[in-house]
Every structure is written in structure tokens, then in C-alpha cells.
């Protein structure tokens, strides 16, 4: 099955064998992960889509692929419109589409290990309105026809030392136990991979760029826990670290254990646990209490050790990025580079620190029209030459033991000058970035309330961008971490309504994208901190900027910046040089000093 058309036909043949009229295919794994292991890349195998968020529905005579605004361009380039309808979400949900397109009396299959209970309920209701039904499959039919499906990773677990975590696992489990006791609960299911990693202070290598291990945890009110993980992944060092209070169990025991909870009060997070977990607990007679994973908020609110580690990681990463930006300035205008070679060189600069564990995501290395794809992923088939007199966007990050980084810079590749439009758009994005960086807000403020600050200058020109403004970031964990985010609040979008708290780390990344021409984004990470304001009535917060690397002044229209914005630019770049300068020397130091020189009013 070398073609996607053949794969679609094979799936339809398999569905017919199983007496199914359709099947739903999300990008997901058993842990509701955003980024999944190769074995779970079923949507990509079936359609060719390479994004990190999307779903598909395959019916006997038609098929549709669902993506959000980040992938409007990408999905059309990667997925054949002859066989697939393109559907935008959240404008149209899978449930709504099924209600309109599924035949009366149809049996639509789904894998309960890759969908939430809430999704199952909404899809069931929508199909019932058509006289159709949603049917849980015993095994995923794509796995039946995917002959070369990768196996699950058997990479070893590693211990994440307290010198980086800032709190030992026993203390974290005790806090969960206290929460369980306060709510008269016996246990909670911890199914999100980064939650398992955070709770037990372990890391893994089962998902590209995210140091997590495929596993589940049952945490109990007595402070003990059961870790369900493949035994070959655990060595003596990990066993000693976990101690007697964490029982190691084979993954095959997970479902039977859930089914043995008769009469027990078990907390399960409906947003992070798949429907199969609810089904197993229900079949075993457990009393299920839906509640947010108790590790989510403590994981998001970084302790002082984690905050300090992030600052160290960001300073190290900023110096590596500064070296890259200098290298680009010296070489890119010659027209000899391409997106892949630039990304490889940036990775090498990070590796030169001697502390890089991994990248934190696949580098978005995008020149010209590729930059207009918000979440572009370069490969051999899309790789473009970085041409003189063009805009180049690079969104990248590193995984270090002391922190996770994520930074975007947009640079002008000379030797000519950018157009007036390019400078206008870049400066409007910059104004939004500065507005958010300088925000001061009262306790209880949600990310959605701040989102407009980053968009206001673009809106004034009739422009916008189709992605969130900020996401949470983990500590040597997921580069996208909840529950906080800064985004438009649309239909209860997860995280947009989460109050921001001191210790949370978020990205600040407004952008602008002109289809077929270029993309612009400026991204730093920021830490929520309490602000001491004389006479303040209540608690107030602001942001400490964590990311330090030069922003390209060649794309700035100084006339659009007011006095306060110029002060921010100059103060920020003075701090950049203070942080990264001591790590540089020679020509790189001289270039960085010039890149950080003050701007003056136009």
C-alpha cells in the first residue's frame, strides 16, 4: 500500500469485513497526548497529513479530514482533495458532520482508547438523531491493515533528580493523597504521560521531543501508587528511586485492575482519560467521580527550583540562538542555505552547549510562502532554498534537564530591504508582543482576557492570526502544557478560562501570515509573577520575560512604535546582551552587541 488511495481502500475493505459503515480516526494515543509515538500516527499513515492536531471520518462513499486554522494550508497540500473533504474546526465538529453525512442505520466504529467519554457521548447523540449508532471496536481496524506499523518504544525510564524537580515524588504523592482524602476518594487514574512523569519524577523517550514514557498510574489515598509500565523499561536505578511505595505492574494488568475497583470511589479526568478507562471502571462497579487530574495545576505552577532552572536553560538557549542568528546574518544572503540545512545548524548550536537532551519539538524552519503555514514542518519534499531578500521564520526549542525552551524569531534575509508592508506587519506583531509582555492584571484574570492585547494592533489594520497567543510550557516536559493558555475564548476552549497564577510559564507569540508569501511570529516565554503595586486593591500580576535573543530590527518600522514600546525594546535588548553576552566572544559577540544596540524614534 504505497499510496494513500490504496490505504483508504484497504481501510474501507476492513470496515466492510467488520460490518461497519464508517470509522473515526483522530491523532491520539491511549493517554490523550498531543504528540504521539510513531505507532499511534494512524491519521498520518492513512492520509499523509503531518500536523499534530486533526481527525478524519471514513465512510463507505466519502471521507473528511478535520483541522483547525493552524493547518488550513498544510492539509490542502498534504491530503488529496480528490478523496478527502476538508472540514474546519471548531466551526464544524465531527459529530455535526456525522449527523449530516452518515446514512440512516449506519454503524460508525470508534476506538475507545483514543477518544474521550465526552466525545463518545456527543457523537452517539448526533448519530442517534439519524437512526445510526456509534460502535466501539475490539481492536483498531487501521492496525489490522497497517502492515509496517511501528512497535511501541521500549526505551528505558530515567530518574529526574530533585535538584531539577525541586520536590521529591513522595511529597507530590502525599499532596495527591491529601486531595483524595479531602474529597473522600480512594484513588485517581493518572493517564496523561506528562502527569505520570511529573508525579513520579521520571522521564522517558517514547514520544519524539517529549521526555515521557508510555505508562499509567493509579495513585491512592494512602500515598502509594501503582505504575503500569513495560518491565523492560525499568532498571535498578529507577526501582530504587521509586521505592516500595510505588508498585511496578505490567501494562496488561491495567484494565483488570480497573475492573477490580468494585465499590471504590475513583477520580478520573474526563479531559485526559480515554473512554475505555471509564468503561473498564464502570464494568467493574467503581463509583466514578469526574474531576481534573490533581497533578495538573501543581505541575503548571513551577516551584522556585524549576523557575531557576528555566532561567538557566533559557540563558543557555538564548546564546545558542544568538550564534545561529549571527551565522544566518553572515551566510543566508548568499542563497546557499535551505530550510533543512538551517534547522540542522541551529540544532548543532544547541548541541554545542553540551547540555541539550533533545529538541522540544520539530523545528519550524520556514522561508517565504512556507512561513505562512503556522505549524509548518519541513521535510525533503517541502524543503525550500532560503533566497536573498526574503523573510525567514524559525520556531524552535530545546529540552534540557533544567528546563524546556520555545522561541520564535523572524528575520530578514538581505541584501536588499524588506517592503513597507512587511515592516508594517512585523511591527504590528511586535506591538502585540510588547503589549502582552507589559500586561499587569488582577488575580483571577484568564488568558482569554489578555489575548486581545496581542491582537489589537493587527485588528486596527483589519488583520488577525488563526492560532492562540500563548500556551503553557513544562519543566523538561511537554512544550505545550495546560491548563493555562492565552487565546480567544471559543466555546469553552480548554485553558482559555483558566485563571493565571504566579509560577505559570506561558509563551507570548502573536503572528501574521500572508498566504503564499511569508509568515511572521515573535515568541518569548514568560513567567507569571506577582507585582507589588503601591495602593493596589488586591493581588496583581505581570510577566517576567524568560527568553533572551535579539529580535531583528531590520523589520521594524520605528515610526509605528510609541515611546513606551521603544523603551521596552531597548530595555529588552540591553537585558539580552547582559544575559547572552558573557557566553559569546569574537565576531558573534560583536554582532550581538550591534543587534542589541538601542533604537531611536523615527
Automatic annotation (TrEMBL):
Keywords, alphabetical: Aminopeptidase, Hydrolase, Metal-binding, Protease
Superkingdom as given in the UniProt entry: Bacteria
Pfam family, any one: Creatinase_N_2
Span of domain Peptidase M24 C-terminal: 540-599
GO molecular function terms listed in the Swiss-Prot or TrEMBL record: metal ion binding; metalloaminopeptidase activity
Database matches in Gene3D superfamilies: Creatinase/methionine aminopeptidase superfamily (3.90.230.10), Creatinase/prolidase N-terminal domain (3.40.350.10)
InterPro entries: Creatin/AminoP/Spt16_N (IPR029149), Creatinase/aminopeptidase-like (IPR036005), Creatinase_N (IPR000587), Pept_M24 (IPR000994), Pept_M24B (IPR033740), Peptidase_M24_C (IPR032416), X-Pro_aminopeptidase_P (IPR050422)
Domain Creatinase N-terminal positions: 7-138
Positions of the Peptidase M24 domain: 310-530
Gene Ontology, cellular component aspect: cytoplasm
Family: Belongs to the peptidase M24B family.
Protein name: Aminopeptidase P family protein
Organism: Sphingorhabdus wooponensis
Taxon lineage: Bacteria, Pseudomonadati, Pseudomonadota, Alphaproteobacteria, Sphingomonadales
